[in-house]
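Work package 3, deliverable 3.1, input record:
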Amino acid sequence: MIRAFIERRSDPGTEHAPAPPGDGQQAASARLLLAVIRLGPTLLLAILAVVFTVASPYFLTSGNLQNLGAQSSIVMALALGQLIVVLIRGIDISVGSVIGFSVVFAAVVGGTGNGWQFLLLALLGGALIGTINGAVIVWGRLPQPFIVTLATLGAAAGAAQLLTDGTAVVGVPELITTIGGGELGPVPTPVLLVGALGLLLWYVTTRTQWGRWLYALGGNPEGATRMGLPVGRITMAAFVISGVTAACAGIIAAGRTNTATPLAGTGAELDSIIAVVIGGASLFGGRGTVVNVLVGALILGTIRNGLDLLGVSPYMQQVAVGVIVLAALELDVIRRRLEERVKRLTALEVER
Amino acid sequence: MNSATTTAPLLQITGGYKTFGHVTALNGVDFQLYEGEIVALLGDNGAGKSTLVKVIAGVHQLDAGELRIDGEAVHFRSPADSRGAGIETVYQDLAVFDNLDVLANMFMGREHRTPRWLGPLGYLRNRQMLAAWKTASAELQVTIPDPRQPIGLMSGGQRQAVAVARAAAFASRVVVLDEPTAALGIRESRQVIELVRSLPERGMSVVLISHNMEHVLQIADRATVLRQGRVVGNAAASKENEHRLVSMIVGSPQR
């Protein structure tokens, strides 16, 4: 009885194996397709840039590119933190409110006199929301980041309104307006800030032990626990990082408008998730890169900017973004199937 | 097979008892593993094999009973404790991280990094790890074409070989394997079996779960049979004992 069970299990697949020749070729072409999918976001951005350059004489002007960069920098900052959370199979909905909360917190607690103090307090405000998210998820044993951060999305928005009695604080320190709206040579300062942030997180995710653990935890949570990784601390830190990058987005937004308002960033949480998805990160966790996610945020910004230049209705823009998101999600599914295929073909090669 | 039977077992569980809600998974298990031994854990589904392995691996804690190593009682509160005691476990389906490369899988949780004071934020010394992988894989005779390739794109046998190599490279005392050859082809199974069989020469003892009686008789010195959370028998894993072992597993009267 047991023997029969063993024999059935011990040699899977050979009965319905495809015709012997060409397995190697099939595996090679599947690997090639996977490589194309990895380059997908960059290719899409290049195609969009070419199309808009041809369609509109204004697209490739320095003024428009500066504008595009400055506009996209807020979503880019948000998307960087969102990626860290998505890598561990999480999601952070609260970032939209952190944009407003962080700067309002800084303005009300420390005033608007000292630029560096304002900056630090805003970052602290973001870290505070991130810490609450992480603490509830890890220590509160509520492993449902969607619901937890949805709750803090509302709570942080309300707290920001309470802090200012529902008004906006007009006038932020000069340091902040420089960060949000200044330029260094031809490059807008928010783009530089986001670039530095991206470089830092690129280093952390690809070159450090902690970065490797992020991918491990997202790829195989149960396995990570069994390998003895500090799963709770990794999760906690990911949410704090997301809070801090959202605060960076808040600082840029406040600087651009010279205002700390509780309403800044409403709906931005969706943009950050869209950028992460277009950038090819998997919502199933464990996959995604800093570079591709920045490209994803730029794609989102480019679509809006280019279609604006062409005078396309904003409703049409929403449809376009929606279609691209669905395509990106489907690509992730195709990628998984291709990988399964490569694995199967490799096994057949070894057995032969 | 071995002469160490007179000394204290390397790993010993006495009166191991574990329940999950109303289900009694381990009902007073006594288990011993001696130095240099390969012991197979046999039993039908739900006999308690996996639970016993998870107790040894630090995933579960005994409700009652004792776990001793070299005669000293120990309490593993987490998998990290078990790894710290020189025990490495290879799980059936959770063995590897598909999204990472061979090197990352090999050194998971034990990455070489620098400088020390940065802790987990330290820089990964990939070149050093690659060199260490080359040494270890040559010694264990595990051949992987490209150790920087994602393990998710590899065949089941290659993945399992990496998981076993990881365990073998870092365990100092015991390697625990849960169904290492399930879902592998014949040739791939053979490679993994050879690897497991070589472990005692490297100073490691092995606990092996397998449904494949043929493999068990090939590699194991001794078999411990579980049924309904109890040990129902121990016997040398030899061809002559095959029928006896099978009747112990299914619970039919012995001839």
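Residues 4-93+152-250 of chain B form a domain with the Rossmann fold fold (CATH 3.40.50.300).
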